[in-house]
Amino acid sequence: MSSMIIMGEVPGGGPAQLDLAELLATRLLVQGNSGSGKSHLLRRLLEQSARMVQQAIIDPEGDFVSLAEKFGHLVIDGADHSEMALHAAGERMRMHRASVVLNLEGLDADQQMRWAAAFLGGMFEVPRQYWYPVLVVVDEAQLFAPAAAGEVSDEARRASLGAMTNLMCRGRKRGLAGVIATQRLAKLAKNVAAEASNFLMGRTFLDIDMSRAADLLGMERRQAESFRDLARGTFVALGPALCRRPTPVRIGTVETESRSAGPVLTPFEPPPAPVHDLILAPVPVQDMPARPRKVPAPPPPDLLTQLAAHGEAQAAQAEQEAPEETSETQTEREARMRAILRDMMEDEEAAFRPAPVLYQDFLVRCRIAGLGRNALDMRRFNRALATARSGVDEETSTQPEWQEAEALASTLPEDLQAVGLFLARAALARQPCPSDAAIAQVYGTVSKGRARRLLGWLEDQNLIVLRADGMGRRVLTFIGTGWETLPGNADG
Prior knowledge:
Blueprint: E1 4-9, E2 15-19, H1 20-26, E3 28-31, H2 38-49, E4 54-59, H3 67-71, E5 74-77, H4 83-95, E6 100-103, H5 109-124, E7 134-138, H6 154-170, E8 176-182, H7 190-193, E9 198-201, H8 207-217, E10 234-239, E11 243-251, H9 275-279, H10 303-320, H11 330-345, H12 355-368, H13 378-390, H14 400-409, H15 417-428, H16 436-443, H17 448-460, E12 464-468, E13 474-478
Parallel strand pairs: 3-8, 3-9, 4-6, 4-7, 5-6, 7-8
Antiparallel strand pairs: 1-2, 1-11, 9-10, 10-11, 12-13
């Protein structure tokens, strides 16, 4: 079967061909300002190769969902699924060899980055027997691999940038061929852009972007201004899958349409009635929004006065919240707080929230339950959170063996205590060894690879021993205690 597809034509005659087999090994970068025809180019590439290779499209604007009707792509709406579900979907789409469009339209930037990272992570971590070739198209790649920190959280940026780096740097051996498109080369992380060997550079106007495009194509700086003169839908191509010298290419027509096509110029007609009556008609009183009168705020007191007032308010609040004489014992208070933590852990998203966020939620719930503003300090909360994440029940938590497990877990780093208690609970209850996915969730991630590394670290610390039974299932034993799980499948 031929691996050549037609992307369009070279001005002056002749088809512009792209070697799909070579592209799968060398990756592609598409650049052009808004309106230059990037989405049209990506759509042409996807349509021409849809019957030849499996495809995965990260679509932040919902432009490519129309591919589903003609070519059978599965459309996954990110707003309807959790981060963990998308990680699993990334694995399963490779196992079942289904082409997928991940529609992230309607999500904020932080969610788009975390959801895309989870989906790409699932594709990347699939077992070796499912490493079939996949064309992975990421539109607006500067959103997922930004060159500098923005308004999104550092956690989301690190996850997304790491997933994009894996795709472009390490994806080839796993069958993942990255095709990334961006409006601004200057906003795209250099380590991601540098891994592409094929380029399609469209119209751009900013000097810094023209300069970077010329450098990538091996053109002289004085030739960089030619990118301003490119027509819409025309790109300069270079790379082993395209051509050996920079060559202008006019992209051909497409069969499907984008849902978010730009506005079309239509004849302008004046309104039928006088504009004054339409625009300035009196508004009924009941429809008029209330406009509260702005009263200028008094000038703030000086700093010493503010500090004194704050100290008095804190003292008064402490007196109000001082525990009254009550028959409730400390044991009963701790039982109520454990119940609050268990309720929080029932939310599937709680496993992926940082401990400080969960701590604030816990304090609010304790105040509602009448347990005071400072029910637990942060250190004691982290220990209680680790116990809650382990899934231990109330009866088991009172047994001497569990107290020994908590003492053992206290020697671990704070972020690993929940994992240690989770494994200890499975061993004490003689349950099957937890899967990598279950361990990853307790740790607060969706990465099975991270779970395997955690187990390796615990084994290096002489805390546990891992072995396989006759059927290849995993058995975990705690050194020095004799606690041992039943055989369990690592893949769940």
